[in-house]
Amino acid sequence: MAFSPDNIRRVREDFRVRRAEAAAAAEAAKTALYAEIPALAPLDREISSVGVRVMRAAIAGGDVEAAVAKMKEEHAALRARRAALLAAHGYAPDATDIRYRCERCLDTGFVGTRMCVCMREALIRAGCESSGLGALLDRQTFDSFSLDYYRGDDRRAMEKNVAALRDFAAHFEERRGENYLLIGATGLGKTHLSTAVAGAVIAAGGDVVYVTAHEVFSAYEKTRFGEGEGGEDRFLSCDLLIVDDLGTELTNNFTLSCLYNLLNTRLNRRLSTILSTNLTPKELRARYADRITSRLFGEYRPLLFGGSDVRMQKIRASES
Predict the structure, then answer these.
(1) Could you read off the pLDDT of 135-150 as tens digits, one per residue?
(2) How many helices (H) and strands (E) are present in the chain, helices listed first?
(3) What is the mean pLDDT of residues 163-170?
(4) Burial class of residue 182, CB neighbours in 10 A (0-12, 13-18, 19+)
């Protein structure tokens, strides 16, 4: 499982800019101090020349070890003089040092060959932004999902749904290619649990796209009518695609063809998809062609959501 290539490029560019800005800020601070403390610039040049003298000694065939020892001694003395000079003017010894945001990787994003935790966090944030879910990822998690609004058989069914989706999200890499069809009326938790899955997969480094069915077909139409790239390639290549409100789109030969291509391509590539719909299985069969429903009911694990609209329950509770 890998982060989105687009997000990787964007984050790496952000880190390049961040590092360049840190270097520029340090250079500006040094220039200002050189103007304020005239003795600082020649002292810095002398410090820089120490290493050059050692290299010359090595090239000339001298005693390299002795030259290095002498260099260290001179360098320490010069650094002490520099610190004293800065202190005399009210500045810390590191006043002209580059201030990196991350001292582990020095804003490169890597510690040796390993990705730094700061870059991973940046990639996760980028994944959240590009997923289409935004702030929902913070609010709609598995931990924030409550079963208190479900009763009897509906509650038992929801317990199984939550367990299935939580397990799928926790083991996404091993379960790559599994698909889910969330079926139930509005307000029963389909979006909440889909978002919870998305958040867990993004945090693990997966590339997730969350869209409504209307947005999917609008993207295909945009490309069809020559209005630029509609983004459908992203739908076909992301690790996890979540399509909300399947069945609310205008159904015609074009949308049916697009939906078939989307489902079939992702199945062939073994890329996971979660579809949610307010339609019943009977209504799905009536709306979509056999070649689509055969995939929906043959390749997707159906999860039925029952009960009373949770949003309305919350509204009534707040009014009482």
Answers:
(1) 778 789 999 999 998 9
(2) 13, 7
(3) 96
(4) buried
**Rounded Cα–Cα distance for residues 226 and 127 (Å):** 28
Q: Taking Cα atoms as reference points, which of 313, 279, 320, 315 lies closest to residue 297?
A: 279
Q: What is the spatial distance between Cα 109 and Cα 98, in angstroms, rounded to a whole number? A: 16
Helix (H) or strand (E) holding 304, with range, is strand 301-305
- The domains located in the chain, with CATH, are 5-111 (no CATH), 132-319 (3.40.50.300)
214-255 pLDDT per residue, tens: 888 888 888 776 665 656 788 998 899 999 999 988 889 999
The strand pair at 110-111 and 114-115 is best described as antiparallel
pTM: 0.73
Asked if residues 181 and 296 have their Cβ atoms less than 8 Å apart, the reply is yes
Tracing tokens 């992301």 back to the chain, one arrives at 238
